[in-house]
Amino acid sequence: MHLLSISSLGDSQLDQLFARAQDYALDPRSGRDRLAGRTIFNCFYENSTRTAMSFAQAAARLGAQAITLSVEHSSVKKGETLADTARTLGAMGPDALVLRHRQNGAAEEVAALVDCPVVNAGDGTREHPTQALLDALTLRQQFGSLTGRTIAIIGDIAHSRVAHSNAELLPRLGASVRLAGPPALVPADAGSHSIDEAIAGADAVMMLRVQRERLDEDLGDAPGEYLRLYGLTPERLALAAPGAVVLHPGPMNRGVEIADEVADLPGRSLILRQVANGVAMRMAVLELLIAG
Amino acid sequence: MHLLSISSLGDSQLDQLFARAQDYALDPRSGRDRLAGRTIFNCFYENSTRTAMSFAQAAARLGAQAITLSVEHSSVKKGETLADTARTLGAMGPDALVLRHRQNGAAEEVAALVDCPVVNAGDGTREHPTQALLDALTLRQQFGSLTGRTIAIIGDIAHSRVAHSNAELLPRLGASVRLAGPPALVPADAGSHSIDEAIAGADAVMMLRVQRERLDEDLGDAPGEYLRLYGLTPERLALAAPGAVVLHPGPMNRGVEIADEVADLPGRSLILRQVANGVAMRMAVLELLIAG
Amino acid sequence: MHLLSISSLGDSQLDQLFARAQDYALDPRSGRDRLAGRTIFNCFYENSTRTAMSFAQAAARLGAQAITLSVEHSSVKKGETLADTARTLGAMGPDALVLRHRQNGAAEEVAALVDCPVVNAGDGTREHPTQALLDALTLRQQFGSLTGRTIAIIGDIAHSRVAHSNAELLPRLGASVRLAGPPALVPADAGSHSIDEAIAGADAVMMLRVQRERLDEDLGDAPGEYLRLYGLTPERLALAAPGAVVLHPGPMNRGVEIADEVADLPGRSLILRQVANGVAMRMAVLELLIAG
């Protein structure tokens, strides 16, 4: 079994993941030795401290070792294809392979070539299922059931695998999702909310990271302009439902897509709880895929 | 005890390594906890994803932790000599030190300065003993005894530590070795086979990776020319014995030294089995050196 | 509890660290499983092979896993503040966080933001407490009590966190410390010894590494001049007490701040014993902070 996308998970698997992850969120040490003697290959072809360390921490807490592929040293530089790298890594017999790759569909391609479970830790602009799962866990801890809740996801919708995976997952859990962002970064089929309309009355606002490259190249706004036009300021958050919570997958650009006062809002910014839940959810995912 | 070269291994040690590695190839989990609590320093001064990860996986399967020295961060950049680095790493008390280094004789130099076993994971153009051992294991799985078998090793013989270690090891196991390659890349004392002559009637053909730098600088052939002149095409493989098998230490340059149809030939391309055997053989090596 | 500076350690904690580290120096395997199931985040924002590997080895010997943050991949490059990185890493629930950072006070800043123990593994030009602790352990093994002993610390005093932490610690253990170096690299309040005066009659001489950048830029001496003017030559060592010992935190610039004959002086150069003691002391530190 692999975790390649949200749609590859059945409802009972979702239930199992949320239940187990919640156990681990409450008692991180309770998974000790569950995957003793196992090895996870942690293959990050794009930089991501937080996700790579989160998987390594999840593996360690289950008693497994994460072996990190250093991309700088990798055979990619020697002209090896992704398929050959995948077959090679698979032949070494890891118990699971975690893959972050800039190419859409990379995880599917790898999964078809190896004998072990593959976790998609982000592929191109498509899917980042463990991020959506940890976001949903965080929202469920806050709201209990998500039925009838409205979640606004704001930012570079077009390029965000976080948005895509959440837009798949959250409606399955009963939530309504509204997508909005700078006009150039929202695809036509995402609906036609303005950012303010998307946030109005929402129970949670999930801000996406804006890529600095995109800031410079596509949007070309003056410093501070992005925050005023498209970012989450206290004024804009005030449009949401009373007590609405704030999420961000990190790393944040403070003063760009999110104002300091919002990022640090006590009791309402769930950003660090997302990080803690990320370890718990990845423990649940690794356990499900490896130990069943 | 160290593993610095093929010639440093006695016949009974060879027997022991092949027997143990075969056990681990059949049951990779059977080594669990054999090296529990041990640490292996994995010191790669040249990039090699596959060898570094293979040793890390081997260590993990024995219950040991591999601690990877990141060369980019290393004291080499601060002007420290290899000898001082070796003494320093040795003083930290690893249970074994695995070294890949571009300098001929680096492993010998390090072994003379530390108290722990040293494994030569490739030094300059000289030796790569665990690669030859895993190649031999793969051939023995295929043929049983290697007595009377002919192995053609094709490519950049002059610069290949893989070729050198195999040319030491395989004859000790009863095989005949024929070395051939582009004329500029075969030393005078390697015999004077053409590539086609070397392959004719061979039971196995081991293709070597051609360094892209060398392709550009020394051989200067047009794209596709290398494969036609020096690579393993289906036509050239047809010169070998019926059912002859194909090996490659990886990573492959597909369409350069090896054609796709050959690299992926079912039942005859043993390239992925080499990778799997690499982990098993390195388990056997680490166990022999550390636990005796 | 954190280890941020020497002054943050009480006398009884010092005693405990020295006793425990001495146990581990004598029997490195005696800590096995003491921190089983724990994870240490090893966060090095400056390159340091030896310190990072020393902490990783210490963690492994206690049964813990060190998870290394790769700074090249880190969110720093994505514009994340140190505070946000700290909070994020802390939210992942490591059992301790080891930090090397070029910014003075970085460890204090991080410690205020996370729930786990923080070990300062060097911050800017300020403190490197585990280095001073291992230096003191090494001197105590040599001399027993340090009361009445004189330690000369020679080199770039102005920029050396090693000097600063030792200048805090060694006097607390009863030693006199004399600081000296190239005039441009010694702050006015460090006393006005010449190097020869500082070494005269000293029981131990601790040479500091001179940064190559500084050699080029500030001192501008001809090759070999540094050693003659400011380095530890056999002639200069002869000014010290008979049998005086030599320390260096490494990596050494041989022929710059220290002559080969001195670096390798049998029985009197304690440089490799410092390295071994580094692992033992870091085991003691991790154990104290995590297990109490």
TrEMBL record, chains A, B, C:
A single Gene Ontology CC term: cytosol
Pfam families, per the entry: OTCace, OTCace_N
Protein task: Reversibly catalyzes the transfer of the carbamoyl group from carbamoyl phosphate (CP) to the N(epsilon) atom of ornithine (ORN) to produce L-citrulline.
Catalytic reaction list: carbamoyl phosphate + L-aspartate = N-carbamoyl-L-aspartate + phosphate + H(+)
NCBIfam families with a match to the protein in the record: asp_carb_tr, PRK00856.1
EC number(s) per entry: 2.1.3.2
Enzyme class: transferase
UniProt cross-references to SUPFAM superfamilies, sorted A to Z: Aspartate/ornithine carbamoyltransferase (SSF53671)
Sites where the protein binds L-aspartate: 78, 161, 209
Annotated Aspartate/ornithine carbamoyltransferase Asp/Orn-binding domain residues: 148-288
Pathway linked to the protein: Pyrimidine metabolism; UMP biosynthesis via de novo pathway; (S)-dihydroorotate from bicarbonate: step 2/3
Binding of carbamoyl phosphate, residues: 50-51, 100, 128, 131, 250-251
Alphabetically ordered keywords of this record: Pyrimidine biosynthesis, Transferase
Natural source organism: Sphingomonas kaistensis
Name of protein: Aspartate carbamoyltransferase
InterPro entries tied to this protein: Asp/Orn_carbamoyltranf_P-bd, Asp/Orn_carbamoylTrfase, Asp/Orn_carbamoylTrfase_sf, Asp_carbamoyltransf, Asp_carbamoyltransf_Asp/Orn-bd
GO biological process, alphabetically ordered: 'de novo' pyrimidine nucleobase biosynthetic process; 'de novo' UMP biosynthetic process; amino acid metabolic process
Family recorded in the similarity comment: Belongs to the aspartate/ornithine carbamoyltransferase superfamily. ATCase family.
Record-annotated Aspartate/ornithine carbamoyltransferase carbamoyl-P binding domain positions: 2-141
A GO MF label: aspartate carbamoyltransferase activity
